[in-house]
Automatic annotation (TrEMBL):
GO terms for molecular function: structural molecule activity. Its main location: other. PANTHER family: FLAGELLAR HOOK-ASSOCIATED PROTEIN 3, FLAGELLIN. Residues 24-142 form the Flagellin N-terminal domain. InterPro entries: Flagellin, Flagellin_N. One of its GO terms (cellular component) is extracellular region. This is Flagellin N-terminal domain-containing protein. It holds the Pfam family Flagellin_N. It comes from the Bacteria. The keyword Zinc does not apply.
Length: 305
C-alpha cells in the first residue's frame, strides 16, 4: 500500500507540475501577444536580453548625437546667414570706396558715403554679436559672452577666445561648433593687424576730412576691404563645409537608427504568427493534460487508494 501511495503522490505531483508549466507558457504567450514584447524577464533569454540592453544604450546615445547634430546644423546655418550678411556689407563698402576714390566726388558726396559706411559699421557690429537659436554667441568661441565690445570712442575689441569646441555627432565623430570672431573680422594688411570694423570706421573718418586727400585714402582702403572680404569668404567656406558634413552625418545617423530599431524588433518583438500558433498548441496540450489527469485520477485503483 505504501508503494501505491508513493506512486499516487508522485503522479499527482508530476501532473500538477506539468499543468502549471503549460499554464505558465500559455500566460507568457498571451502576454507577448498583448504587449508585443517577446522577452518579459531577462531570465527567459539572457543572451537576447543582454543584446537588447546593448541596443538600448546605442539608441540613447544615438538620440543624443542626433540632437547634437540638429542643433549644430542650425547653429552653422545661422552663422552662414550672418556671414553672408557680412560679405554683402563688405562688398557694398568696396563699391563705396571705389566711388569715393573718384576725384569727381565732392565733399557732400563723400559725407554721404561716410554716413552709409557708419551705418554699415553698426550693422557689422550687430552681426558680429549674433546669437544662435539657443541664445549662445555664434562668434565668441567658448567664451559664452558677446564676441565683440565697443568702447565709448567707437573702438571695437574682440572679447571671445580662439577655442570653438567640438560637438559629438556620431560614434567617433565630433565637429567644430563654428568659427571665432577674430578669424572672421580680424586680419593683417601689409603686415599690420586690423579689423573690418577699423577699416570701415577709418574710411568714414578719412572721407569726413581726417585725411588730407580723401580720394587717395579711399583708394588705399581697398586693400583692407579686400582682406576683410577674403576673411569673410574663407570662413563662409569653412562653415558651409561643416554644415554639409553635419547633414551627411544626420543621414548616416538616421540610417543607423533604423538598423538598430530593426535589430531590436527582430530580437525583442513578438512574432505574432508564431506565438499565436504556439499558444494554440499549448492550450490544446493543457486541455488534453487536464482531461487525462481527470480520467486517470478517477480510475478504480486511485479511488481504492
Amino acid at each position: 500500500m505504501s508503494f501505491v501511495s508513493n506512486s499516487t503522490g508522485a503522479f499527482y505531483e508530476r501532473s500538477l507540475g506539468q499543468l502549471a508549466t503549460l499554464r505558465e507558457s500559455a500566460e507568457s504567450f498571451q502576454t507577448q501577444i498583448a504587449t508585443g514584447v517577446r522577452i518579459q524577464r531577462g531570465s527567459e533569454d539572457p543572451v537576447a536580453a543582454s543584446r537588447l540592453r546593448q541596443l538600448t544604450r546605442l539608441e540613447v546615445r544615438g538620440g543624443t548625437e542626433e540632437e547634437n547634430a540638429a542643433r549644430l546644423r542650425q547653429d552653422l546655418e545661422e552663422a552662414s546667414n550672418q556671414i553672408t550678411g557680412v560679405v554683402e556689407l563688405i562688398q557694398r563698402a568696396r563699391e563705396l570706396a571705389v566711388q569715393a576714390a573718384n576725384d569727381t566726388q565732392g565733399e557732400t558726396g563723400r559725407a554721404a558715403i561716410a554716413d552709409e559706411l557708419e551705418q554699415m559699421a553698426e550693422e557689422l557690429f550687430t552681426r558680429s554679436n549674433a546669437i544662435s537659436i539657443t541664445g549662445a554667441p555664434l562668434f565668441s568661441g567658448t567664451a559664452g559672452a558677446p564676441a565683440f565690445t565697443k568702447a565709448p570712442d567707437g573702438t571695437v575689441t574682440y572679447a571671445g577666445n580662439g577655442q570653438v569646441g567640438t560637438v559629438p555627432v556620431a560614434p567617433g565623430t565630433s565637429i567644430a561648433r563654428g568659427i571665432t570672431g577674430d578669424a572672421l573680422f580680424q586680419f593683417n594688411v601689409a603686415g599690420t593687424p586690423t579689423s573690418s570694423f577699423e577699416v570701415f570706421s577709418q574710411l568714414a573718418s578719412d572721407l569726413r576730412g581726417a585725411a588730407p586727400d580723401p580720394a587717395a585714402a579711399a583708394q588705399a582702403a581697398l586693400a583692407g576691404i579686400d582682406e576683410a572680404l577674403n576673411a569673410a569668404n574663407r570662413n563662409q567656406t569653412i562653415v558651409g563645409t561643416r554644415a554639409a558634413w553635419v547633414e551627411a552625418i544626420e543621414d548616416d545617423n538616421a540610417e543607423r537608427g533604423i538598423n538598430i530599431a530593426e535589430k531590436r524588433s527582430e530580437i525583442g518583438d513578438t512574432n505574432l504568427a508564431d506565438v499565436i500558433v504556439r499558444l494554440q498548441q499549448t492550450l490544446t496540450a493543457l486541455e488534453a493534460s487536464q482531461t487525462t489527469f481527470t480520467r486517470v485520477s478517477n480510475l478504480t485503483l486511485f479511488n481504492a487508494i
